[in-house]
Amino acid sequence: MKRSLCIFLIFLLLLPCGPRAVAEDTEGGDEIVIVTAPPIPEETPLPEETPEPTETEIPEETPAPTEIPTPTEAPTPTDTPEPTPTAPVLPTSIEIDTENWYFGMGWPYRDGYQPTIGNEIVTIILPLQSTDRLLDDKITVTLDLSATGTTFVIANYQKTVVLSEQNINGTEETREIFYVDFSIPLSSSRVNGSYPVRLQVKAYDLNYTPIEAVFTVYVNITDVPPKPTSTGGGAETPTAEPVVLIAHSDITPENVMAGEAFTVKLTLRNSLDTKLVRNMLLRVDTGNLQINLAEDSPVLQLESLDRGGESEIELHFSSDPSIPAGKYIINFTFSYDSNKTLNLSSSGFVIVEIAQPTNAELVVPRIPGEMTAGETIPLSFQVMNMGRDNLYNVRCVISGVGLFPSNTGFIGTMVPGSSSSTSVELFVGSKTMSDDYRGQEKYGETSGTVTLIYEDASGREYTEEQYFRAKINPPTILSDPSEVQVEVSAEDRAVQYQWWIIIGGLGLVVLGLVSTLIVKQRKRR
User: Fold this and answer.
1) Nearest C-alpha neighbor of 371 from the set 475, 466, 254, 519
2) What are the φ and ψ backbone dihedral angles of 25, each rounded to 5 degrees?
3) pLDDT band at 523, cuts 50/70/90?
4) 499 phi and psi, to 5 degrees?
5) 462 CB neighbour count, 10 Å cutoff
6) Cβ pair 390, 457 in contact under 8 A
7) Can you name the residues that pair with 68 across neighbouring β-strands?
8) CA-based angle 453:457:463, to the nearest 5?
9) Is residue 187 classed exposed, middle or buried when 0-12, 13-18 and 19+ CB atoms within 10 A define those classes?
10) Which of 316, 253, 257, 320 is nearest to 291 (CA)?
């Protein structure tokens, strides 16, 4: 059977066309079922392949615009605290130590130091000090002899001077100064007179800021004998010639203040009773650019002096407000003739002490208008130096009837432009406790004084006062502590009783509510 089935299948496969029969072996036996396959339709031509669309080039992404930063909010301006005022910083300066004398001087500049002359040599000593440290602690000093004519041997005089320890006033005490000394040979053609020698000083401070100063020292030449005059009868024996002296000087006002005018009155005297002085000229040199002569010219023509006679001359000066306080030398040179000799000269000087006006301000705190006896009140005072010079021993004192300060508000030295504070503890007593009180009233109205005391560089003392009024009340006396305690305890007990009443009432209300709820529940049952 199987063979027959295979042959049949092969036969069907060999058929060129027409339906194909498929034999299936059914489960019923050897029956062959011919299954005719449906005709295969003719193949339809496939459409031409549509070319695949080319990929459209996607344009490159335009870069997103960078995000513009949002401007940050401007910071809210804050109140800038006002700067605390400070004392002005004064530039470094170089000045003469006028208070002391050193080796080779004999007396200090404040007393009219004069250079010494010996062996045809003039020795000039200039002790200098600086208000602050200088670079390398040295200065350079140059002599200027241009105004001395042929008095000295002209040469280049310059030296570097370093800070050194020098003995002062002929004692073992020393001080650091720039000890400047020059020995200048005298010229053989010199003549008597007073000649200004200028010393130019240069230095640098620690910030490399240049510092310059010029000092003038006068040299009095008196060792040249007058030339004898010859007559037809032969040589005349030389005699002494008159010298014009400053017999007396008077400065007004007595206390010369910077920025104010002052007057110098000179009394001139002829030293000889045998010869007169005529054709006299006076040359005035203040030696400082901040001291000004108020006359029309620094050279004045004076009256003749009779034999042994005297005459007076009044000169007017002024000073700049910024001149430092101190002592200054005003030099006078006299040129004159006698009835025997021509071209005579002499010189003199006057020392003027100029002070800076003191200007201190006191800020007084608010003093209570009513005070209680037995209490201590702290008070703080502020003092300001509004002047151009130092203030010394600055202190505040408070006084009054029934008022007793426990201390003095001491500040000490104050530089220009500075401010300082001090405190005073003021004990309030009764008015009868004051020794200078003659009344019987212990308490009530009183008055007091706040006094500012200070000194200038010369030791002159100044005071400024401010007055106040106040009322002293009697001290508060407390009751017996036991009575106070009893009263306080009674008040406490009253408060406690009120709380107990409130709590009791609330308790009764709660009990009533609970009883009502219990009765209602029983009725429901």
Assistant:
1) 475
2) -90, 110
3) confident
4) -65, -40
5) 14
6) yes
7) none
8) 15
9) middle
10) 320
Please name which of 326, 315, 267, 324 lies closest in space to residue 292, comparing C-alpha atoms. 315
On whether the CB atoms of residues 345 and 359 are closer than 8 A, the answer is no
pTM: 0.43
Q: Which two tokens stand for residue 187?
A: 């010229």
d(CA 390, CA 479): 56
Q: Which of 382, 392, 396 is nearest to 415 (CA)?
A: 392
Report the C-alpha gap between 214 and 294 in whole angstroms: 23
Separation between Cα atoms, residue 206 and residue 208, nearest integer Å: 5
Give me 326's structure tokens.
Answer: 């101190």
360: number of Cβ within 10 Å: 17
Mapped onto helix, strand or coil, the DSSP state of residue 496 is helix
For CA atoms 305, 318, 221, 230, give the dihedral sign: negative
- Written as one letter, the residue type at 255 is N
SS (H, E, C) 143-198: EECCCCCCCECCCCCEEEEECEEEECCCCCCEEEEEEEEEEEEECCCCCCEEEEEE
For residue 428, list its beta bridge partners: 403
| Amino acid at site 279 | N
pLDDT over 70 (residue 249): yes
CA distances from 130 to 95, 167, 391, 417, 512 (A): 6, 18, 20, 20, 102
CB under 8 Å to 449, separation ≥6 — which residues?
398, 399, 400, 465, 466, 467, 468
The token pair that represents 437 in the structure block? 């009180």
Structure tokens belonging to residue 112: 């009219």
Strands 326-338 and 391-400: unpaired
Sheet hosting strand 299-301, strand order edge to edge: 256-257, 344-355, 326-338, 277-285, 299-301
What are the tokens at 490? Answer: 């009674």
Share of the chain above pLDDT 90, in %: 44
Distance from C-alpha of 126 to C-alpha of 142, rounded to nearest angstrom: 12
**More confident call, 1 vs 109:** 109
Do the strands 138-144 and 116-118 form a parallel or antiparallel pair, or are they unpaired? unpaired
**Cα atoms in the 13 Å half-sphere on the side-chain side of 318:** 7
Confidence band for 16, pLDDT divided at 50, 70 and 90: low
Tell me the residue ranges of DSSP E strands in 401-443. 403-405, 409-414, 419-428
Q: If you average pLDDT over residues 295-309, what whole number do you get?
A: 89
Could you tell me if 96 and 127 are in contact, meaning their C-beta atoms sit under 8 angstroms apart?
yes
